[in-house]
Each structure stands twice: as structure tokens, then as C-alpha cells.
């Protein structure tokens, strides 16, 4: 099995490449990150240093045969999406269409799209299931939803199997989310900032569990799947776990709640368990401990 991974040098991409290699797959990565900034990608991985928007990607890859594409490359900063919507549209929506087209030209039969639970918006009925009406309320979430629609449309048009994976709040070695921010700040003996009262809940999924889901999706029927734990954990509890494992008693600073934050969120993962044969391995406590150990090493 030869798998093409876009964004393979990134946070989720790196762990996905490792999971693919463990399965015995050959891996080719498309990533614009320069060689000196790629971290620890194994030498067995072929890396094409390129942007997914480049017009000549097919010419560079047409001599190879791929069984699947895992599309992880996208614009990931919420602030960029709000401040520069044209860049968001180009890198996320146009980039996804470019990769779907490339998959079709290369005769790739399976396409995995990395989506996000942000497409749901603020739902009151919990846990959130895949069949609810989408109501994104940020520019980034709107572009993600649009890319989902294009993925489903073109895959059905061209006869590709597809998996749309809606990741919950991903954390772990190399990440940038709230758990990783707490670890970074405590590592520097800084007081972390918690927006609101800290009672808001999230569904935290470890990056290695996400990577395993990406690999499991290569053998699944077409569909949309939440990649989540189906467990809600409040931010105060998360901070207490991090601080306890560090053995520090630094009190966080509470700031005004952000308008875009939801009060409660967690996501049903039964479809992923049934159709992907996947379930999360890490509890949030175990995942935090593993991530802190990684930072210390």
C-alpha cells in the first residue's frame, strides 16, 4: 500500500505517517515545510516539498501508483481565516478541490479528508452525532464544511471511496491546543490564562488516536465519522491534571470569555467504532501524562 499524505510534516501528519509505517505502508508526503523544519520524519518516507496549490503536482507524481490519499494540509489558524478570508478560501477550499482533482488524475481510489467538529457549531443536545444539521459560526468552520461538501460531491462523481473525519480537540506531542498551551506555560513557570470561568467542556482526543483513525479509514466504507472520545472534560479539570503532573501550584489567570467559545461539547463516536473498527486508546489523564513526559524528554 502506497499512501499519499498532504501536510505529512505537520502535527497530525507526522503521527499519521508513523501509524502508516507501523502498518507497513509506503508513504509519500506533500508538504511545503522545508527539510530543515520537518522534525523527525523517517528517511524511508518520500517527501515532495511543494504547496498543494501548485499546478505541476500531477507532473511530479504521475509516474507513481497510490492506493489512497489522506488530506491533512489546510490553513489552520482561526485568526487568519477571519482576517484574510481569501487566503482561507484558497488554502482550505481550493486546496481541497486541487487534491481531489489530483487524486482523480492519479487514479487514487480512496480519499480521507481531515475535518473538524467545529462544523457543528454550538449544539445543545449532547453528545453530538454526525447526522445533525451543521451550523458553523466561524470563517474557518464554514470553509471546513464547504470542503466536506466538495469532498463528498467529487468522490461520488468520480467513484472514489471517501472518509470525512471530524476531529474533536486534538492534543499531544507537537500540538498547539489548550492542553499544550498549559504545558508550555507551566514548563516556563508562567500562569496560564483561562477564558471564562473554566467550567466549559470539550472533548479531548490524543493525536495518536487521531492518527490511528486516519489509517483505519483506509479500509472503511464511505461516510462521515466523529473522531472523539464521547467524554466531556472541563477546562479547570484539564488544568488541574496538567498542574498535578508537573507538581506545580501556579494559579491560572481567568480572563473574559471569548464570544466564539461554546459552553459544553462532546461528540458521539459509535459510528467510528462500528465502521472503522476504531476506538480511542488514551484517557485524557493518560494522554496529558504522555505529552508532559514527551516535553520533558
Structural write-up:
Residues 3-227 form the NAD-dependent epimerase/dehydratase domain. InterPro entries: Epimerase_deHydtase (IPR001509), Lipid_A_modif_metabolic_enz (IPR050177), NAD(P)-bd_dom_sf (IPR036291). It comes from Thalassobacillus hwangdonensis. This is NAD-dependent epimerase/dehydratase family protein. β1, α1 (11-23) and β2 (26-31) form a beta-alpha-beta unit. Helix content is 39%, strand content 18%. The protein has a domain at 2-170 and 206-229 and 268-280: NAD(P)-binding Rossmann-like Domain (Rossmann fold, 3-Layer(aba) Sandwich). It is α/β, with parallel strands linked by helices and 297 residues long. α4 (85-105) runs parallel beside α5 (139-158).
Question: Could you give the topology of this structure?
Answer:
Layout: E1 2-6, H1 11-23, E2 26-31, E3 46-49, H2 57-61, E4 68-71, H3 78-83, H4 85-105, E5 110-116, H5 139-158, E6 161-167, E7 169-171, H6 178-187, E8 193-195, E9 201-202, E10 204-206, H7 207-216, E11 223-227, E12 233-234, H8 235-246, E13 253-255, H9 270-276, H10 284-296
Parallel strand pairs: 1-2, 1-4, 2-3, 4-5, 5-6, 6-11, 7-10, 8-13
Antiparallel strand pairs: 9-12
Helix pairs in contact: 1-7, 4-5, 6-8, 6-10, 8-10
Domain NAD-dependent epimerase/dehydratase: 3-227
InterPro entries: Epimerase_deHydtase, Lipid_A_modif_metabolic_enz, NAD(P)-bd_dom_sf
Organism: Thalassobacillus hwangdonensis
